[in-house]
Structures are given as structure tokens and as C-alpha cells.
Design brief:
5 helices, hydrolase activity, DNA repair, DNA damage
Length: about 150
């Protein structure tokens, strides 16, 4: 497994890049909000940024605690989308390590949750919100007792 440790950042390649990265949303992104609105409209109730059992430094984007379903809305750049992910040219070696570590952390988080009985749903930021909501709703309903 790839390590989730990354060496210290070498510094931004420009002031503009530094500004852009410093204001990038870490939570409550547009795609997360769209998905949450659809889930709420469908009558689903959930927790936001819920600590991962067994590793409280990590959080679940959308958690259905009773059904034990964890939903992650992964950004194409940060999580290495095979369709839209890009590799920066500036500080390329560092970014390659960073993005690989993010993917290793994602896999570790999924394995950790599954080991304690959670079901994990991962969607990409570019996925259709209606389709993503349907996947989540189906996963939650499949884990709820009948009746």
C-alpha cells in the first residue's frame, strides 16, 4: 500500500496559485451541497462531516449513522479521478506523492469503515447529483431493516 505521508510542501509556484489553493473549499463544496439537498428533499436525514470510527482525524462527508452508510464526494483533482484528474507541472514530484497519498488514505478509510460494518459509497464531484442521490438512497434502504 502507498504511504499516506507526504514530505513538506516545497512552496507554491506563484502567488496566484497560493491564493487559489488557500481559498479552495475543503467541505460544503457545491457538489456536496447539491447532493445533500437532493437527499434531504427525499426525506433522508444524515450527519455532515462525521468522524470516522477508529480514526477521528478523518471525516465522512455524509453519514447515515443508523444504517451505517458513509458517503464521500471525491473531488476529481484531489482524489485522482481517472476521467478528469490532472497532474500539475510545477512541483510535479511532490504533487504525484501527494495525490497518491490521498488515494491511499481513501482506500484505507474505506477499508477501516468496512471492517467495522459500514457500507461506503464514493461519488465523483462530476457525477450527476440525481444519480448520486439514487445510489445513496438505495444503499441506505438496503441496510435498513424491513418494515
Amino acid at each position: 500500500m502507498t504511504s499516506t505521508r507526504v514530505p513538506p510542501h516545497p512552496g507554491a509556484s506563484s502567488a496566484a496559485v497560493s491564493r487559489r489553493m488557500s481559498v479552495a473549499a475543503r467541505r460544503d463544496t457545491g457538489c456536496e451541497l447539491l447532493l445533500r439537498r437532493r437527499l434531504h428533499a427525499a426525506g433522508m436525514r444524515y450527519r455532515v462531516n462525521y468522524p470516522v470510527p477508529g480514526n477521528r482525524r478523518r471525516t465522512i462527508d455524509i453519514a447515515f449513522t443508523r444504517a451505517r452508510v458513509a458517503v464521500f464526494v471525491d473531488g476529481c483533482f484531489w482524489h485522482g479521478c481517472p476521467e478528469h484528474g490532472t497532474q500539475p507541472r510545477a512541483n510535479a514530484a511532490w504533487w504525484s506523492q501527494k495525490l497518491a497519498a490521498n488515494q491511499a488514505r481513501d482506500a484505507d478509510t474505506t477499508a477501516l469503515l468496512e471492517a467495522v460494518g459500514w457500507s461506503v459509497v464514493r461519488v465523483w464531484e462530476h457525477d450527476d447529483p440525481a444519480e448520486a442521490a439514487r445510489l445513496v438512497i438505495d444503499a441506505v434502504r438496503a441496510r435498513r431493516p424491513a418494515g
